[in-house]
């Protein structure tokens, strides 16, 4: 790929989605956009780039953005963020929200739904303690295509074997031909909507827990800070923020601080989350 | 080093599983059917058994039932690994005492994820 083509795509993608593509990601552009070019009846990636340069085909740009921002996802990915939720965050919230009996969770890069459904399964397993509670899981993603799949709640044999214990497959899924379909009582616990993290969070309401994993890595420093600072403002003072294993707030913002020894878990710097969660 | 007995009547599958599990630092033994596996387990119990279902002489489920009825031994973790991919088979395996269940085809990621879940990694 020519340097000027890379620069052109990288700048456009940054502006549209915040996605930061460094020069070592040329392969990512090629591997994701070549199939899209073919789907659009174009012979080569070059032809696609030329088309993008001369036209303002918004639908095409949307497809390009979606192809580049789609992340692979597993159930209970990385394990720890879910163990921490089950053993610390949820018990803390059960105490802190005992009066309002209201719990709101935001999965800010919900992708194909594995993360919000993993949380829904944990909540389901704690249903007795949550009787009478109003629990909401909001799953957002910039890519509408992945959200369609998330909403459908159907997964391939490969997908249900990555991270999902067999007991949970038995309990929460049913087989439907070639696919595994998550049960409706789990599916209905999550509401999905397309959302770009560069947009204002006004209208999102406030949250007790935010999962924003493996998306900040694509942003440049000022965008990371901006997103994190705005997340702080929609998160309760005793709330929790989960970032991806390769991500941190250190050196980016003072709004959050890492919880010592608990990888991926961040809390408001001026807040009270740790006592609450027994960490 | 933990030991894993790979039980499958297909030489190719045993070879693929061996390669993945050796990379994950397991010491590998191989058995060609359930009877062979049971004999090897009685002689020396492995930490984990990766178990095919359809095999001649003694199938995987028959092996599992016989293994779980052994008393006075340290029971290994058993992970089924089979082309049988319907809920009825999965339930049957878990009820007979399997700890995890892999539906073929599998890759390194799936083996790793499943072995992780049962606390082997
Ligand atoms: Mg066989």
From TrEMBL, chain B:
Domain Response regulatory: 3-119
Phosphoprotein among keywords: yes
InterPro entries: CheY-like_superfamily (IPR011006), Sig_transdc_resp-reg_receiver (IPR001789), ST_Response_Regulator (IPR052048)
Keywords: Phosphoprotein
Signal peptide per UniProt: none
Keyword Electron transport: no
Modified residues (4-aspartylphosphate): 52
SMART domains per the UniProt record, alphabetical: REC (SM00448)
Designated name of the protein: Response regulator
GO biological process, one term: phosphorelay signal transduction system
